[in-house]
Specification:
By secondary structure, the protein is α/β, with parallel strands linked by helices. Helix content is 34%, strand content 18%. It contains seven helices and ten strands. Helix 1 packs across helix 2. The relative contact order is 0.18. It binds 2-amino-2-deoxy-6-O-phosphono-alpha-D-glucopyranose (GLP). The site of 2-amino-2-deoxy-6-O-phosphono-alpha-D-glucopyranose has 13 residues, from helix 2.
Length: 245
Amino acid sequence: MKITITKNEATFDLTAAWRIIGQILAKPEAVIGLSTGKTTLGMHRLVSEIYGRYPFDTSKVTIFNVDELTNIDRENPASCYTMIREQIVHPLQIPECNFIMPPTYSDDFEKECRLFESELEKRGGIDLQMLGIGWNGHIGINQPGTPFEQETWISVLDEKLDERLHREQNLPPEHKIGGFTLGPKNLMQVKKVILIAKGAEKAPVIKDALFGPITPAIPASILQLHPNCEILLDTEAASEILDSI
Ligand code: GLP
């Protein structure tokens, strides 16, 4: 694992933005997976600002998000579809046909999972995955306990996110929101993974994921075995590993 520590949030966002742009410049037909959340908002904004200033060819790149909520409308601002469409796909003028996302409602999600994988496979597999990490070590929506061999599936949200979404969306507790997500096995097959974390609240889980045992209890720990994985952190997220590197 290569660990890159940036000195503050601004350099974190800029470094991450250039990783995405660099992948598109190196391979215009690249297949790139993104993540939503607080961590990626700033970097996505910069990608679109840089594109606005120095346009590059985005006609062949494929964009998808590592995960998606189920049982809420795609047009809902909380869906990953809407977030990535607004943050990246529209600002970069990426053709809609190259924006690959699963549906948020389906009678047969098992089929949708296999379809999603085969769509990415048809395009040559995933070149780059920008991957967030949750406070409990989840990657995508693979919560602690997910088997490392798990492929794309419908998982459950962590309790903090589930509680927040129900509150913000005014949903009754019996309304179940699921998590469509690439599994750890898919993530291990990505050509390059960049695990991204910023802020002090991620410092303990970063230490566990990078220097603790490789265990399904911390899903991100599997990345210790990934052949091409970079860990991109700001100083705060790196604050508990400085003695170990
Ligand atoms: C959610 C998303 C993940 C993301 C994680 C971290 O669980 N499904 O893909 O990596 O949150 O989010 P944040 O960057 O807001 O901490």
